Amino acid sequence: YSFFPNMPRWPPSRTDLTYAFLPANQIEDSVKVVFARAFVRWSDVIPMTFTETASFSTADIRIGFFSGDHGDGEPFDGVLGTLAHAFSPPSGLLHLDGDENWVVNGSPSTAYAAVDLESVAVHEIGHLLGLGHSSVEEAIMYPTISTGSRRVELASDDIQGIQYLYGSNPNYNGSTAATTQEGDTSGSGS
Amino acid sequence: HFFPNVSAIPPSLIPNAIEGAWTSFQNFTGCHPGQKVDGLAKLKRYFQYFGYINNNASTNCTDDFDDALEEAIKTYQLNFNLNVTGELDAPTMEHIVRPRCGVADVINGTSSMNSGKRPESHIHAVAH
Questions:
Q1: Average of pLDDT values for B11-29?
Q2: Which of A118, A124, A138, A153 does the annotation list as catalytic?
Q3: Complex ipTM, two decimals?
Q4: Would you say A43 and A10 are in contact if contact means Cβ atoms under 8 Å apart?
Q5: Minimal Cα distance from A75: which residue of B?
Q6: What is residue A185's predicted lDDT score, i.e. its pLDDT?
């Protein structure tokens, strides 16, 4: 696991964070459920909670789907290529490429240029919390994902990294660390 | 574009019908240091975007397979557990074109991925 330079993290007093979706995206409930699941994967292992709020402007974490140049100096590049990005704490910005074909439920297939939304959401939340990229291929924080794969469970590498920053959730029993990746991992992804 | 599951994806979205952002990079497979190849500057910008080539090195974004590109490839190969050849071999290219997170692997010249944990490689990363 790794951290951003100077190891930024949310202040110790900020253990209950809110998140909101860009209103213009008109995100459906089925998609919101995916993000809720993704947040829980992290709150299961650290003493933090994440609650959706309707107030985008005041939310700690702001999630939006954008196409191309969207004003943060990191333009998206259309189908595949870069899928999403998020900024280090405490910025709370999570942006996803609106041109991608996102699969909401279940494993995608290498037969299509589509990407599993939850896999990317879990990864980007790791950045929001302060984790950088990992060289451990099974880790959520590994930078690439093939179109046919679904990687949503935190690996021990992810858990060690995030608990180094925030400590352990008192209810964490150490049973959620994954060592395998679901779905097809053999595809090139393009 | 949201699809509830894989069966809802239209057949038009098969990968061969989609020109992904980095599909054209496959044409650079087999390139090695010292060559000059049309379009290689675009691949350099890819490495620049993810932190492997210094952002200030804009003058290096030519089609020349120069030292900066070779070092970038070596660092990338270390980070992704590939054989460190410094060349655009098939396994490296297969990895480069994969969809990925837009956050850089190397920030301010240093990486906490594999390459930053090996002293000899850290020196190269900082040099960029």
A1: 74
A2: A124
A3: 0.89
A4: no
A5: B102
A6: 34
- Residue B41 half-sphere exposure toward CB, CA atoms < 13 A: 9
Closest CA to A84 of A93, A75, A95: A95
Q: Is the pLDDT of residue B128 over 80?
A: no
Q: Give the number of beta-carbon pairs within 8 Å between A and B.
A: 149
Q: Residue A93: which H helix or E strand, with range?
A: strand A93-97
Of B17, B78, B100, the CB nearest to A144: B100
State the average pLDDT over residues B12-19.
60
Structure tokens at B109: 């010249």
pLDDT recorded at residue B23: 84
Cβ of A104 within 8 Å of Cβ of B23? The answer is: no
Task: Answer yes or no: A182 catalytic.
Answer: no
B99–A81 CB contact, under 8 Å: yes
Q: B35-80 pLDDT, tens per residue?
A: 999 999 999 999 999 999 987 655 568 899 999 999 999 999 999 9
pLDDT of residue A142: 97
Q: How many whole angstroms separate alpha carbon B20 and alpha carbon B98?
A: 9
Cβ-based contacts of A81 with chain B (< 8 Å): 20-22, 99-100
Cβ contact, residue pair B112, A110, below 8 Å: no
d(CA B39, CA A169): 50
